[in-house]
């Protein structure tokens, strides 16, 4: 197992860990739930609170705050294959799923919404609500049997499954959905910032994602919404708040949406969280996504090979490259086992009823983390 420590010595991303505020005694494998804090965030927040808010006061809105949702959106756009002017940051993923689905079905004469049957609950709940509000039918379907038809208005999918870590073939699935004239909306929560994604090149209709996992924006950091340029004129979202208006400060009676991606905004942006995320994204100035993906595959491969034969363990994350950067293990006592791991400062998480999740964030996780986690798990089992 010590060979793994040797891999840390030659890891081209090893220096990036220094940019994070992490405790060396803790093996943190939950960056797929809440990313670790980059050091730059604390320094930036001091400036934001003391100088920008404290000294500049309301002038801050005309000194960068107002445009922050689009500016930070463009920075995320670079990580998901979206050219500038197509990503806006704000609200939660759940709220953005609602905006996206409502906009996708508006005016349609099609009759169904298809959602991944094993989706993260919020996606399923919001899809059901949209179906009820619009009178469409909701059809949950396995990603292997989506079977979209001429009746399908939109398909909502997770790029990487939160429970198993399986990754869908975004190109093939989007093409299949488009072949019947339906729209594809992708939830990128578990892939933004770790997997190469090509939203523009694949002609994805709409996409959403959070920024508190692999993008390290912090607890409750705002989500993002991708609306490609060609679709913006017809993107009529239901939350017609004043900040999506074409002239917010004209205080007009009628709602006329901004011509661009700002029409996806709703109310006053959460500037403190937004600027914490902005600082967190500076880490990307030092790394390439290709390196991140390569290291993520290696870390998860090594961890998997160390734990797959442990007693009572079944690995449920695919072994091939169709997976994200987590390893999910089924074990009958998953909750108790994770409790014992956390007591030893090996932090992953548990999803009921029987799944242990270990998320590997290539920006700060080391090969020695995989070794230490596997050793602790072996001792416990
Ligand atoms: C796939 C997916 N979608 C959505 C969410 C959460 O949405 P929100 O940011 O609105 O809480 C999560 C949270 O873990 C998730 O894994």
Automatic annotation (TrEMBL):
Pathway: Amino-acid degradation; L-kynurenine degradation; L-alanine and anthranilate from L-kynurenine: step 1/1; Cofactor biosynthesis; NAD(+) biosynthesis; quinolinate from L-kynurenine: step 2/3. This is Kynureninase. NCBIfam families: kynureninase. One of its GO terms (biological process) is anthranilate metabolic process. Keywords: Hydrolase, Pyridine nucleotide biosynthesis, Pyridoxal phosphate. Homodimer. It comes from Umezawaea tangerina. InterPro entries: Kynureninase (IPR010111), PyrdxlP-dep_Trfase (IPR015424), PyrdxlP-dep_Trfase_major (IPR015421), PyrdxlP-dep_Trfase_small (IPR015422). Belongs to the kynureninase family. Pyridoxal 5'-phosphate binds at residues 93-94, 120-123, 187, 190, 212, 242, 268.
